[in-house]
Design brief:
- This protein has one domain: Immunoglobulin-like (Sandwich), CATH 2.60.40.3330.
- Helix content is 18%, strand content 46%.
- The longest helix is centred in the N-terminal third of the chain and has 17 residues.
- The protein is elongated and about 50 Å long.
- This is Transthyretin-like family protein.
- Belongs to the nematode transthyretin-like family.
Length: 94
């Protein structure tokens, strides 16, 4: 039992040492029916398997539909970023 406790304490203390800071910048333009979409909520996340995904940054698009988000995270492996857009684009399919 004591060896498992010691192993848990060591793992908790040493994991941050092995993790490395990684960052990402995403720039883009949101469009709806070939028109820029303003005020779209943009969220940059980092995917995690064992715990909830990490919100790295969030912003809103400007009047031209442009956005730029930067985020960084300490991870042992490679970060797995993804973007979530919250919008109200309603385009009917042809």
């Amino acid at each position: 039992m004591q060896s498992y406790l010691l192993l848990g304490v060591l793992a908790t203390c040493c994991l941050p040492v092995w993790a490395k800071k990684q960052n990402i910048t995403v720039k883009g333009v949101t469009m709806c029916d070939n028109r820029p979409m303003k005020n779209v909520h943009v969220e940059l996340y980092e995917h995690d398997i064992l715990d909830p995904n990490d919100l790295l940054s969030e912003t809103h698009t400007n009047s031209s539909g442009e956005f730029s988000v930067f985020g960084e995270e300490d991870e042992m492996g490679t970060i797995e970023p993804f973007i979530r857009f919250t919008h109200d684009c309603k385009v009917s399919k042809p």
